[in-house]
User: What shape does this take?
Amino acid sequence: MNVVLIFPPTTVYGNDPTRPTPTPPLGLLYIAAVLERDGHAVTVIDSIAEVKGEVTVQGNGRRYGLGYEAIADRVKGVNPDMVGISCMFTAYAGDVHRLSQSIKREVPDVFLVTGGAYASAYPRYILEDRNIDCVVLGEGEATMIEIMKHLSGDLRLDEIRGIAFRKDGIITETKRRPPISDIDSIPFPARHLVDMNVYVNASFNGVYALRSPSLTMITSRGCPEDCIYCTVKNIWHRKWRGHSAKRVVDEIELLQQQYGIREIYFMDDSAAVSRRRMHEICDEITRRGIDISWTLPNGVAYWTLDRDLVRAMKRAGCYRLTFG
Assistant: This one.
């Protein structure tokens, strides 16, 4: 079956200084990887990356990324069985709804799904939009595979855990799906489905990297804490899981070999929950003699660190920590 996964455009208003830059949509690329492994044909549209900084001014708003109608035309050309749209932040939810309307206008019978932090937090609000057929709640890989089984006639929607949908006009949520325990079982992100040169080239314009080119990675999922301002628990249920050191360092080497990367941003929510694992990652980077700089820009809990670990991280190439 055919699937289109979309990172939507971003509209900012008024004096909001936000200026989105091309960053690999790793969440979508993980889902693309498991769908490909299951035999489906996947197209990824990153609307921010595809137009390389194009801005459309509409009233008090500035839209960054490919236009809704242009994306809908692309979708129509693929004629997919399912479209999945990333819906991460409340501030940009309007783009998801406007894009969904444009897609349904061109391909009215396509099954349209949204997922992400905002979608997981407010599924009932999102499903008031009749253009959206289903919301994935939390982690998406296993759920998206089962949605494809529904579309092929092998499962009913109410048999799929971790979704919200309309049944006879009534919004229904199924029981939450437990997080994947062994995240090493998930393939590397399907970076081959996007033009990685866009992200690599954009990294040379960054102001935070020590070395270029740079790219992003995720070495763990979730955070065990319960900060009231954070939506991470809407996705991961306060459950933390880490990739093995071998898997992490294998991916670093892959990014170096394929894209010449000299710096990595580890985008984990709390990378050092397991000090032992972080020591193992640092030891493996050092053992293999990998020349890489890396940082933890999303923040690391200071109480997960100690003097020995920080020294090991520095030896392995870490040069900046963000606490939060």
Q: What stands out?
A: The radius of gyration is 20 Å.
